[in-house]
Amino acid sequence: MSVPDYMQCAEDHQTVLVVVQPMGIVPEDQFFRIYKRIASVSQVSIRDSQRVLFIRYRHHYPPENNEWGDFQTHRKVVGLISVTSCTTAKEWPQTSDRFHGQKEVFGSTLYDSRLLVFGLQGEVAEQQRTDVAFYPSYDDCPDVEKRVEDFVESIFIVLESKRLDRATDKSGDKIQLLCVPFEKKDFVGLDTDSR
């Protein structure tokens, strides 16, 4: 059962939805401080293009609403940013596994994701990864906004490549049928390819 989002408005149809969630034990005040910094990147001018991508962030989004993404694209979660605290290298494998589990919740529509790790220092934190950013503390994270801009650009690249694939696709007779989530069970066993 999906939950109505009363905060939606007409402008949401021009935005992409990114969910920002705490993972594990994250102090609420610290999370919302980082969330505000992330949410300050509400539009990104794409490099080498004259286009602008508008982003809508939610810190709580029921996964059931994501099922409506095929029918109402503005409800589709295309990005995930997880914020977590991790203080020792021993905690890192568990943290990484939890992040992959969190990605699976929105997995069918997710185009890209990022993990912001606070408190971890040392050998693990020195690894260069595009999907993970390590910060020594919640106060010492000067490039959060820049990382979010790079993240949004990567979502744009995926969206643009999907648009171009569809534009060059010549199988025009096989248009996917739009249906709401509760209608999908009615199509089980039916031949939707024949006319």
Reconstruct the topology from this structure:
Layout: E1 15-23, H1 28-39, E2 43-45, E3 52-58, H2 63-66, E4 77-85, H3 92-105, E5 112-118, E6 132-135, H4 144-168
Parallel strand pairs: 1-3, 1-4, 4-5, 5-6
Antiparallel strand pairs: 2-3
Describe the protein:
The protein is an alpha/beta fold. 28% of the residues lie in helices and 20% in strands. It is built from 4 helices and 6 strands. It has helices at residues 28-39, 63-66, 92-105, 144-168; strands at residues 15-23, 43-45, 52-58, 77-85, 112-118, 132-135. The chain has a 6-stranded mixed β-sheet. Strand 4 (77-85), helix 3 (92-105) and strand 5 (112-118) form a beta-alpha-beta unit. It is globular, with a radius of gyration of 19 Å. The chain starts with 14 loop residues before the first strand and ends in a 27-residue tail after the last helix.
Please give the count of helices: 4
What is the first-to-last residue Cα distance?
A: 32 Å
SS content category: alpha/beta
Average pLDDT value? Answer: 83
Order of helices and strands: EHEEHEHEEH
Summarize the structure.
This protein has 4 helices and 6 strands.
Question: Which features characterize this protein?
Answer:
globular; single chain; alpha/beta; 6 strands; six-stranded mixed β-sheet; Trs120_TRAPPC9; 195 residues; 20% strand
